[in-house]
């Protein structure tokens, strides 16, 4: 028998309801019973610890880490920022994994049937560790928008998926990053499920010309806040605080 304090109420001021018919996939994915909060075991909260020597030298460079004799097609960009706690302090040694569509809006996945071509020089995934100040950086190409089978003429705006690991595999948070100025954000069925406009805005990376490389690539800044009033909205963190 579950105790009352084992139930976690989703914070509907920021998070959408689990069942959101406007986003059709939620109809099948939404849980039918209250979620339980289970205590983590000692092994889950103490490891494994991620080290820089476990990453490959090109893991953070999506332009080069899958190249097969050439470079990927598309707008070259740098994405950088900091992972911070609620007080603005950097969180070091956080493992970030990213995955995305190519510049044409197609994922390198067997189930992606979009008519845009697969880029032979772009794998669409990478990873990096934050440094002692919580800073991270990776290089990639700007992903393209793509249609999906939600409603008639539904399109996903350009976005990059983020997975963050703390000190162990059980401490994983998932979110996605949009790009400043993208008009498709306001029509996105997924972003549209978020009731708090400021929470959506915290998912938008800002153009950062100071970090751009002249004659090479633009840059976008995306800071990630783990807790508190300015928390980044995570898809798998229900409390919202």
Automatic annotation (TrEMBL):
<comment type="similarity">
    <text>Belongs to the intradiol ring-cleavage dioxygenase family.</text>
</comment>
<dbReference type="GO" id="GO:0019619">
    <property type="term" value="P:3,4-dihydroxybenzoate catabolic process"/>
</dbReference>
<dbReference type="InterPro" id="IPR012785">
    <property type="entry name" value="Protocat_dOase_b"/>
</dbReference>
<dbReference type="InterPro" id="IPR000627">
    <property type="entry name" value="Intradiol_dOase_C"/>
</dbReference>
<feature type="domain" description="Intradiol ring-cleavage dioxygenases">
    <location>
        <begin position="79"/>
        <end position="107"/>
    </location>
</feature>
<dbReference type="GO" id="GO:0008199">
    <property type="term" value="F:ferric iron binding"/>
</dbReference>
<protein>
    <submittedName>
        <fullName>Protocatechuate 3,4-dioxygenase subunit beta</fullName>
        <ecNumber>1.13.11.3</ecNumber>
    </submittedName>
</protein>
<dbReference type="InterPro" id="IPR015889">
    <property type="entry name" value="Intradiol_dOase_core"/>
</dbReference>
<keyword id="KW-0223">Dioxygenase</keyword>
<dbReference type="Pfam" id="PF12391">
    <property type="entry name" value="PCDO_beta_N"/>
</dbReference>
<keyword id="KW-0560">Oxidoreductase</keyword>
<dbReference type="GO" id="GO:0018578">
    <property type="term" value="F:protocatechuate 3,4-dioxygenase activity"/>
</dbReference>
<dbReference type="InterPro" id="IPR024756">
    <property type="entry name" value="PCDO_beta_N"/>
</dbReference>
<dbReference type="Pfam" id="PF00775">
    <property type="entry name" value="Dioxygenase_C"/>
</dbReference>
<dbReference type="InterPro" id="IPR050770">
    <property type="entry name" value="Intradiol_RC_Dioxygenase"/>
</dbReference>
